[in-house]
Amino acid sequence: GIQVEQSPPDLILQEGANSTLRCNFSDSVNNLQWFHQNPWGQLINLFYIPSGTKQNGRLSATTVATERYSLLYISSSQTTDSGVYFCAGLAGSARQLTFGSGTQLTVLP
Amino acid sequence: KAGVTQTPRYLIKTRGQQVTLSCSPISGHRSVSWYQQTPGQGLQFLFEYFSETQRNKGNFPGRFSGRQFSNSRSEMNVSTLELGDSALYLCASSFSSVTDSFFGQGTRLTVV
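Predict the joint structure of the above. Result:
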């Protein structure tokens, strides 16, 4: 199966700062998603982005499929952005999402 | 449109017992997959069902099993519970296995 690496593992920001989270995958993927895990454990969909760039408010994501990485940008961060961010990919005929180990984001007031 | 619903939300069981968790997918979604999340191992794939057929299974012992009904609802069962089975169990549904997946709130299982 594919390997998914996320960086950095931990990130501490002051409210209002911008940040970039990275996801590298070991093989081509045909499904790439970013999630935010809330304090109660639910994974909230942020982006479905196997390639290209998408934006949703203060968040945007870019996947460069040919170079096997994806970036999640958070601008003007707020305390409510705190939590763990995961990327997950699905490759080939495997019908299972492979998750990275996550980035723990803490936004300080 | 209702999201993915998992029941129960919390569960405490004793070693050796068995447990059944339930997942109702988003209406119209036929693919249901299950994941286990632990602090040490992260998020790991358990299995995926599509139209009542298990199409893929992760690297878990046979104590972990599942099924899917004709209305796409799915259950997973863990028999002979071990302390290490304590985890957050997450269910995801998707229209197909290559479209985006949507997760339920999870079932937090504690084995004592």
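The radius of gyration of chain A is 13 Å.
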